[in-house]
Amino acid sequence: MNTLATVLLSALPLAAGWAVHVWWLRGCLNTARRDPLTGLVTRDGFTRRAAALVKDPRAVVVLADVDKFKHINDTFGHAAGDALLKATAERLAHHVGRSGVAGRLGGDEFAAVVIDDHGTAGDLLAVLHGVLARPVDGPNPHVRTTVSLGWVRAADFPADDLSGLLRRADEAMYAAKQARAGTRRAGLGWLFATVTGRRSGRPGARADAPVVGVTA
User: Fold this and answer.
1) What is the spatial distance between Cα 125 and Cα 34, in angstroms, rounded to a whole number?
2) How far is residue 98's CA from residue 175's CA, in Å, rounded to a whole number?
3) Angle, CA of 183, 145 and 119, to the nearest 5°
4) What is the spatial distance between Cα 180 and Cα 191, in angstroms, rounded to a whole number?
5) 3-state class of 71 per DSSP?
6) Is 208 marked active-site?
7) How remote is the C-alpha of 166 from its chain's centroid?
8) Which one is catalytic: 44, 56, 65, 108?
9) What is the DSSP string of 17-63?
């Protein structure tokens, strides 16, 4: 056996070991970007995927917030709250499909980007709102609530990046929650004026920020 063949054969275990290590690291990275409770991508994973998707004018950015989630936890226990979050995540991911992305931003707040091929986002989200309000499978049939949705079309605000679109969807979601409207689309008016782009009442929002309208 010549010297070259000997070197190559001796290098095989090292190469195989490195391949396994890379595969393991990739698995760890993917796990770190997944929320352990719901299986959705976390904020970082969502941001990476969503930032690319919103460059498509067909993109629709959605913010979803579970209504009265603290009441569910306090009344029925954290296991019931966890079951509700899991069900919300599964239903949201199903409606978003493979062309979009859904993520859990934290707590009972979720975000999604949907690619609206047919211009029917309003109808799709109205259906989704009804689906999210269905009772959760589990030992307690009384565990149910609604989810407030706010959404915005990327095409309506071509100058906005993902952060700007999320702010608008957040404003619309808050307006829907306050009006108990279920679902609301961000209007073409001004956002609530804040220092950091958070709506009035959110951490980081300016207390003296003027309130201006968001249309349905």
Assistant:
1) 24
2) 29
3) 25
4) 20
5) helix
6) no
7) 10
8) 108
9) HHHHHHHHHHHHHHHHTB-TTT-SB-HHHHHHHHHHHTTSTTEEEEE
> How many residues can be counted in the chain?
216
Enclosing H/E stretch for 69? helix 69-76
Residue in this structure with the two tokens 């073409």, named with its chain if needed: 188
Beta carbons within 8 Å of 35's beta carbon, 6+ residues apart: 41, 42, 89, 103, 104
Q: Give Cβ neighbours of residue 90 (< 8 Å, ≥ 6 apart).
A: 38
Give the contacts of 185 (CB within 8 A, at least 6 positions apart): 122, 150, 151, 152, 153, 172, 215, 216
Residue 101 to residues 47, 114, 119, 132: CA-CA distances in angstroms?
A: 10, 7, 18, 17
Q: What single string gives the DSSP state of each residue in 107-163? A: TTEEEEEEE-TTS-HHHHHHHHHHHHTSPPSSS-TT----EEEEEEEGGG-TT--HH
What string of pLDDT tens digits covers the 216 residues of the chain? 566 666 555 655 654 554 443 343 444 334 447 899 999 999 999 999 999 999 999 999 999 999 999 999 899 898 889 999 999 999 999 999 999 999 999 999 999 999 999 989 999 999 999 999 888 876 677 777 889 999 999 999 999 999 999 999 999 999 999 988 889 999 765 444 333 344 444 544 433 333 333 333
Integer Cα distance of 84 and 87 in angstroms: 5
